[in-house]
Amino acid sequence: MKKFSLVALSVFFIAIGVVTEATGKEKAVFKINTEKSTVNWTGKKVTGQHTGTLKLDNGEVNVDGEKISMANVKMDMNSIVCLDLTNPEINKKLVGHLKSDDFFSVEKFPHSEFVATGFKAGSGKEDYMVTGKLTIKGITHEISFPATVTIVNGQMTANGTAKIDRTKYDIKYRSGSFFKGLGDNMIYDDFEIEFNLVATAEAI
Known about the structure:
By secondary structure, this protein is mostly beta strands. About 10% of the residues lie in helices and about 55% in strands.
């Protein structure tokens, strides 16, 4: 339900070994297009789930030859939107709750950030396992998730879904791990963030 974050999250779109070929440069910075990129979140509870979106504030990936030297994404927590609730009042109430101290404490922590630190090639040419540090509410933990990355004519696209344990970021509201007897009011600890990112190479 009210568990998403962000997450986000994050950038796991690093294609090792194909950057130089795709850009024609040994060094390149891929700037994330915040208008074309999307971040979708899904939070689940005993009685159902909620879905929504989150906007990226900025982000980039630095590439040196065939190695990624840095990749990070900053997410705007004030941009939280719920898509499945059609009643305006109920929708506003949920979004307000997500922004409150029960969840993401947006007033105190307006941004979340993901910094990528590891990129392991998968079974397919465009498949990777991305590892990095996710910071939410000023708390940082390492996460890993699979991603698909493509680079064509200096344009990078990346798609991946990360599962996040909200309780690690001090988001314990109606968590069955901390509160007993919640019944149908329980909200599951894990939520998902789906990244669909678009970035363009710029000369250094």
